[in-house]
Amino acid sequence: MDTPRPKLLLLPGLEGSGDLFSGLIEELGPLFDTRVVRYPNSCRTYEAVAGVVRKEFTGSSPFVMVAESFSTPISVQLAGDAQHGIEGLVLCNGFVSNPLSTLESLWASAAAPWLFRFPLTSIAARTFLVGPDAPDQLVADVRHAVGPVPPDVLCARLRAVLGCDVRDALRRIRVPVLCLQSGRDRLIGERASREILRIKPDIAMERIDGPHLLLQREPRECAEIIGRFVDRVVSQRSATDD
Q1: 0.85 exceeded by the pTM?
Q2: N or C terminus: which one in the chain shows less Cβ crowding within 10 Å?
Q3: pLDDT tens digit sequence for 90-144
Q4: Does residue 1 lie within any of the structural domains?
């Protein structure tokens, strides 16, 4: 009997809708049983996010979590706690503690309540999220996903990022971990990935030329890399079962 491939559980970025995963899901194809976790606006803290994600831990099938940016700390926490079913973890532009410098953190915390009051512009989306050469449709999709989220929710989630620290949980992880790092990320710098590698040097790291929303700009390349990672996870599981 063929060994079933694990399910993929996709955890979204700051806006929490999960709507921006459509391109990646299409590239992953029908071989994966892919589920998207969606965060209601009531999820303003990582504790609340964890509660939503845990509800997806049902059934006996193993799964790989694919977490994007904002969701990476909670995915690390859950994997570090050895939650039932998790057999692999993919972090896209991830971090395990505040990814900003002290000065950047002070500015972000002070400015967020004002910045989030205004709709996301195409210029801001291209500058910080999808790159200056992004297709117009992707820019529109990003603005459509972010637009309905209340400013106070975005602000609270940003402050959760600034206060996160799951470094001890990263040390406890015993399942394979893959990090996807954007080469042109203007939000999460290389300092975050260096910290992850310093704590856990055996983590696989793939650097891809792209902006912050890497899974959206380069869905085909990301899907191929994730697929190869899942194959390794499945092979390890099969070897253990034998």
Answers
A1: yes
A2: N
A3: 999 999 999 998 888 888 888 888 889 999 999 999 999 999 999 999 999 999 9
A4: no
Domain contains 2 = no
| 93: three-class secondary structure by DSSP | coil
C-alpha span between 93 and 61 (Å, rounded): 27
Q: At what angle do helices 72-80 and 46-54 cross, to 10 degrees?
A: 60
Cα of first residue to Cα of last residue in the chain, in angstroms, is 13
* CATH classification of the domain holding 191: 3.40.50.1820
Say if residues 138 and 26 touch (Cβ distance below 8 Å). Answer: no
Answer yes or no: is 131 within a domain. yes
CA distance 91 to 229: 12
Backbone torsions φ then ψ of 185, nearest 5 degrees? -80, 120
In terms of Cα–Cα distance, which of 27, 109, 9 is closest to 64?
A: 9
The β-bridge relationship of strands 86-92 and 7-11 is: unpaired
> Which pair of structure tokens corresponds to residue 198?
């310093």
18-64: pLDDT as tens digits: 999 999 999 998 889 999 999 999 999 999 999 999 998 876 678 99
Per the rule left: phi > 0, alpha: psi between -120 and 50, beta: everything else, 4 is beta
Q: Which of 219, 169, 221, 177 is nearest to 197 (CA)?
A: 177
What range defines the domain where residue 80 resides?
7-241
- How many structural domains compose the chain? 1
| Strand (E) or helix (H) holding 207 | strand 204-208
Name the strand (E) or helix (H) holding 181: strand 177-182
